[in-house]
Write a structure and sequence with these properties.
This protein has helices at about 1-40, 55-110, 115-150, 160-170, 170-175, 195-215, 265-275; strands spanning about 155-160, 180-185, 190-195, 220-225, 225-235, 255, 260, 280-285, 290-295. By secondary structure, the protein is an alpha+beta fold. The strands form three sheets. A five-stranded mixed β-sheet has the order 2-4-5-9-8. Strands 1-3 form a two-stranded antiparallel ribbon. Strand 6 and strand 7 form a beta hairpin.
Amino acid sequence: MKGLTFIIGILIIIVSLLVLYITLIQSQLRSINRQLHKRLTENTRQPVSLELINRELSKVIININKCLKAEETLRLESVREEKRFKELIANISHDLRTPLTAIKGYQQLMAKGELSADQHKKLQIAQKYSGELGRLIEQFFEYSYLANADLKLNLERINLTNLVTECLATSVSSFEQRGIMVQFEETPTIFVLADQGMTVRIVQNLIRNCIAHSAGDVVAALSASENAVISFRNSVENADEIDVERMFDRFYTGDRARSKSTGLGLSIVKLLVEQMGGTVSAGLQQNELSIQVELPLYKQL
């Protein structure tokens, strides 16, 4: 009887120790989880630590810290690469401006001389492409400035309806040159809390994108629910080659057969919109492309 009691006592002690050990293991797992959560939410770089000495858990922590360190190294390299790319954009745009100015100057001199009809036609083609190159270089400058500068927002109450109407009115001649008709779906006046200059740039870039890439007429619209929404719709060619998830990437090329890039216009739109707390999105249904910009509504206190 005493022997059985002794055995039971030993078993109870063993079970108690096992329960305590399991409890400590669970506590360590919760601690590891808290540390990982803190790294994700508070953007800390502190390695994960372990209080309980356990060979297998120690191996897990070592491998976790190795993975975290490798991820951090990749992130820092990505940041450095992004910085180098932005500097490259700024340098290229600066280097291209001087020869382009010279090219345009010589084109103007040639236009003043006596040219045959064929020579005049070829000069106009050259002027057209040098103009497109000039616009791309200006986008280089704008993007590199916006990406690198510490932008100071001047958020104010803006009549978005009037702003979009004025931008469309000033672009009428450009639409007419392309033979594009514009329909503007009027709505009650919408006010947003935004930066005036940035909002003008956003709308102008959306309009330029339509002028450059639309295969038909354009429909512009404004609406408001939780946010103000600026929408541009137009038909496109080769719709099956367009990836709407990548349209706001730098130099995204939808039609690879023509290598026709959207340049930086939509990337600038995305950058400016997000600076003001808004969002951008694109959709494609059949042959109609739509781009939506959402900006915070002005809410009177």
